[in-house]
Amino acid sequence: MKKPGLTAPVIAGLVGICLAGAGLAQESDQMTATELLNATGKSAVITPHAHLNGQAHARFGIPNIDSLVNFNGHYFADGFDPNGNPNTHWYYNTVGNPPQQGGTTTINAPVVPVSLDLRNADGSIRYVNGQRLYSDVTPFVAPIMNSPTFQNSNYSSSAVATQFSDSIQRAEYFSNAKNDWHTLLAGSVKTSRVMMLLKGTYRFALNTDGSCCLFVLVDINTFVNELFPAVATDTTTPIGAAENAGDITTKDMSTFLFPNTYLYLNGNPNDCCVLGFHSYDFEPATPTNGNVEHRYVVNYSSWITAGLFRGGFQDVTALSHEISETYNDPFVASDGVHDVTPWWLAPNGNCQDDLESGDVIEGLPHAVFPITMNGLTYHPQNEALLQWFEFLSPSDALGGAYSYPDTSVLTSPSAPQKAGCQ
Known about the structure:
Elements: H1 33-37, E1 65-66, E2 70-80, E3 86-95, E4 104-119, E5 127-128, E6 131-132, E7 134-135, H2 141-145, H3 164-172, E8 182-189, E9 193-198, E10 202-206, E11 212-219, H4 220-227, H5 238-245, E12 253-259, E13 261-264, E14 272-274, E15 276-283, E16 293-303, H6 317-328, E17 340-345, E18 351-354, E19 371-373, E20 376-378, E21 383-384, H7 386-389, E22 403-404
Parallel strand pairs: 1-16, 4-8, 4-9, 4-12, 11-13, 12-16
Antiparallel strand pairs: 2-3, 4-7, 5-6, 10-11, 13-14, 15-16, 17-18, 19-20, 21-22
Helix pairs in contact: 3-6
């Protein structure tokens, strides 16, 4: 994956499952488990914004924007910039307040549930085997809100129970954070939205009882166009509707939750699967909005039903991946400066030059970190720490770690690479 842009978990492999309706007539765009068996993971790259100029060393974040609270930092490492030029000075931008400041920063984290209304090509309601093709997200909302993303659990990086992504940040900034430093999410469920898709832009598989849907695959270009508003007043898309209703603001870290909804590239359902990405929607600076750009930091994440993918990827794996990456890279390296890193080559084969902490670990053994709470065992993803991207040896993270919460996933820093890992 190249920067800047949206990020997505790369799934190492898929396992077969027995789908419904084996004795019923198959639709031309209906999928089976066999068709998913050979699917490979994909990353999505969509530029949310062009280049910006700002004070890369500013203590309290990127100036002249209206967005969530963030701070900047820098480090020195030999490497190559995106154009292949040698560089030693790198800048990062992180959600929250500086660790040296201490205290708790609480960020509103609205969750907008989005169901899928799968239509015929002419826009009429579609039925398969007498049942409407409508994939309802409602059953997955409560499990998401009760997960480690929004609820407290115990981690070695904190003396008190805390949230999953905060525990990672505390491990990452262990050497210079005050003991009471936390960056927490105040999760809340907002008005549910519906994304309508026309036949030809999606594929689907039915549940064992013949109902919709075990999973839905969507063309990524269609999905992005249907998710983000075309103009500020657009209320026809989930993000546009949520913005105009005040359900999400520029100060929030907003999640758009989908039911087993995965994306394919290049118009080819076999070129699959993207399970989530994070980015931001923005309104350009104008005299009428204070001459500052307004950025809505958002992520699309899919609930993952157990058994669809190998490697333990299920329930909140995608959500935890995107939230943790948002903490480390809220503006997806869109200015070409912050969160651009030296080129790195991960053990999973990903070659990138951005601070996408989840992309390093996806698909590796022990990629997920099971946590049992509130009656369920959740599977958030382990994350690479900043020290891995800095080539820092020894690491000054908690316990000399390069990954967290499972410190055994990465035991040494990334090795310096030429541009493109050539």
